[in-house]
Write a structure and sequence with these properties.
133 residues; Immunoglobulin-like; 3-stranded mixed β-sheet; elongated
Length: 133
């Protein structure tokens, strides 16, 4: 069976290009030989599934959505993803078959500590005096 869909933002109704679609179990966990695909630039996708499967749709900055294939119609199904306002709450997207976890992609912007600056200055001065001759 082939499932067709389009991934859009739930509020703005804009297409979400390159969204990830993975065949999963009902809890969003990967199936051993799970199919995986990406949506095109308009958010459209097609994926091979069994009638008992689920698909989990993910997009950076949005909450994942797991949908039963039983809920799909034969036409293109519109999948609304909700924007995740609190990116700090985004946890591991999927757990692999061996229990490995995917990075949640959150980068922290931390200032450089004073002792790093002190070591840069010390090393720079040492190199300057050594090669000044």
């Amino acid at each position: 069976m082939i499932a067709k869909g389009q991934v859009i933002d739930s509020k703005t109704k804009e297409e979400l290009p390159q969204a990830t679609i993975i065949v999963t179990d009902g809890k969003g966990g990967l199936i051993e030989d799970g199919e995986k695909t990406k949506a095109d630039k308009n958010g459209n996708f097609t994926i091979d599934v069994f009638p008992s499967d689920f698909v989990t749709v993910s997009y950076i900055g949005y909450k994942n959505k797991t949908i039963s294939i039983k809920d799909f119609s034969s036409d293109i199904n519109v999948i609304n993803l909700e924007y995740n306002k609190k990116t700090e709450e985004v946890k591991n997207i999927f757990k692999g078959n061996r229990g490995e976890e995917v990075d949640n992609g959150i980068m922290e912007n931390k200032p450089i500590q004073w002792y790093y600056w002190a070591s840069f200055i010390f090393i720079g001065y040492y190199i300057y005096t050594k090669y000044r001759k």
